[in-house]
TrEMBL record:
Entry-linked Gene3D superfamilies: NAD(P)-binding Rossmann-like Domain (3.40.50.720)
Keyword Ion transport (UniProt): no
Native organism: Paraflavitalea soli
UniProt keyword annotations, A-Z: Oxidoreductase
Family in the record: Belongs to the short-chain dehydrogenases/reductases (SDR) family.
KW Oxidoreductase (keyword) present: yes
Domain Ketoreductase: 7-173
Record GO terms (molecular function): oxidoreductase activity
InterPro entries associated with the record: KR_dom, NAD(P)-bd_dom_sf, Sc_DH/Rdtase_CS, SDR_DHRS6-like, SDR_fam
Record's protein name: SDR family oxidoreductase
């Protein structure tokens, strides 16, 4: 079960955190993994980890916010079976404390970046006679989190794009779903704590861990396992759905 042998997969943001865990697991399951990354160094580290274990991976230096860059990269990759739209950036702020510059920056990566990859990938999925798309959303799109105005806005758009794409390509054998993690322990979280709570990182780490009723953050590999299921033939009846993976955050926090 869950074999990806003979499949070509693209993982955006595959150089770090959740994207790296997805790339490594996909390669273990037999996929040829193409990593689309802003950070050449991170992408190279993931490729090295995969090839050292005998897997197949290729790094592509690419900014998902640039359509020209993305089209060029997907044209090089050619026909593909799986797209994971994972690359994303964080932001802290309320509606009246989010600058126009920050609003545009987050939307450009977290919304336009997903659109750019869908735009470029769908013809390549069609060329492979169908395939699977998994978008990385967040619990921030499902519950009212404080200080996540533009981040939540962007992840809400990711969920809406998921439904739209699932509907439009239903009869072309292209499935599209999203996953919504609560807090996952990645460099994204460490960077967020360092920038926003300098000197209080350990205290805030503990607080964020406890905000999941299960008492801890997720490990990236736990998110990767769900993404593998949704990308495999075993989930062939699932499209147009969002899957919270949240240690009880949404339903058990009262
Ligand atoms: N970590 C969490 O708690 C958490 C929770 C819910 C959702 N998410 C989502 O999961 C995804 C991955 O998060 P993570 O924690 O692994 O983050 P991360 O910061 O560890 O990794 C993100 C990767 O994306 C790359 N990236 C950023 N902007 C890019 C761009 N413009 N073009 C190409 N690559 C780019 C970065 O270089 C980095 O390697 C994001 O979409 C994030 O919003 C994370």
């Amino acid at each position: 079960m869950f074999s990806l042998a003979g499949k070509k997969a693209v993982v955006t943001g595959g150089g770090s955190g959740i994207g790296r865990a997805i790339s490594v697991l996909f390669a273990q399951q037999g996929a040829e993994v193409h990593i689309i990354e802003l950070s050449e160094e991170n992408a190279a580290a993931t490729v090295q980890e995969i090839t050292a274990a005998g897997g197949k991976a290729v790094a592509h230096s690419c900014n998902v916010a640039s359509q020209a860059d993305v089209l060029d990269t997907f044209n090089k990759i050619g026909a593909l079976n799986i797209l994971v739209n994972n690359a994303g950036i964080a932001h802290i702020g309320k509606a009246d404390t989010t600058s126009e510059e920050d609003f545009d920056r987050v939307i450009k990566v977290n919304v336009k970046g997903v659109y750019n990859c869908l735009y470029a990938a769908i013809p390549q999925l069609r060329a492979a006679k169908g395939g699977v798309i998994v978008n990385m959303a967040s619990i921030a799109a499902l519950v009212g989190l404080s200080d996540r105005f533009v981040y939540s806005t962007a992840k809400g758009a990711v969920m809406a794009m998921t439904l739209s794409v699932a509907r439009d390509y239903l009869h072309e054998n292209i499935r599209c779903n999203s996953v919504s993690p609560a807090r996952v322990h990645t460099p994204f979280v460490d960077g967020f704590l360092k920038n926003n709570y300098p000197g209080r990182e350990a205290e805030m780490f503990e607080k964020l861990s406890k905000s999941q009723p299960i008492g801890r953050m997720a490990e990236p590999k736990e998110i990767a396992a769900l993404v593998l299921y949704l990308s495999s033939d075993e989930s062939s009846f699932i499209t147009g759905c969002d899957y919270p993976i949240d240690g009880g955050f949404i339903k058990l926090n009262s």
